[in-house]
Amino acid sequence: MRKQLLRLAVSGLLATSILLGFGAELVPESWRSSIYPRNALASTEQPTLVTQFNSGYYCGPDNDFCIWMPGELIENTSNLLMSLSHRTWTQYAIFHQDFTVGPSPEQKYSLLNQFLEQWAREERATVISRIGLQFDGLPAGIEFTALHYDGKKSKNQIIFLGRRMYLLSAINETDLGVEAKQFFDSFRIN
Question: Is 50 exceeded by the pLDDT of residue 179?
């Protein structure tokens, strides 16, 4: 399971490369040349964890987002936070990446579709449901559920807010329940 979440985080990096225009024909050249990851040179030893509140709430490195991470923390780098809930045997992850320019609404959908297709191919997963996400009434991303080749099920959200992309994921061998819903519902932008 940990390998799948790490692959999902790598898929987040893949999304970064898509956004940066490495081999992505759908990204306009004018936009491609103006984007680079703000924290690409950040040390992987710099933790995402800034503050831990009671009951497993964590905030991002700039204190700009908070999320509840159920269970035991198993990965904590500058862009990735992962936990494992021994109660439900579900792994949770949040990946984030900053860019100098945020995508327009039209670019968001193109990039999200491109990312989702490539992710499904690499994960050997079938997307079984997909809905658009809004933040303050504006298109912000997608939520999708996938069935993986090994029978595991994941729920994922890819969200663009301003210059930042977030990838939230929960994966386990059975159906995702209340704990996973609380994980996604706990995500807050400060």
Answer: yes
Helix%, strand%, coil% for the chain, nearest 5 = 30, 40, 35
Domains in the chain: ranges and CATH: 2-34+48-189 (3.40.1000.10)
Of 157, 187, 186, 156, nearest to 172 by C-alpha is 156
Average predicted confidence (pLDDT) for the chain: 75
What's the count of helices (H) and strands (E) in the chain, helices before strands? 4, 10
Question: Rounded to whole angstroms, how far apart are CA atoms 23 and 55?
Answer: 42
User: Whole-model pTM?
Assistant: 0.73
> For residue 122, is pLDDT > 50?
yes
User: Does 13 score more than 60 pLDDT?
Assistant: no
Tokens linked to 172: 């386990």
H runs (alpha helix) in 21-148: 29-32, 105-123
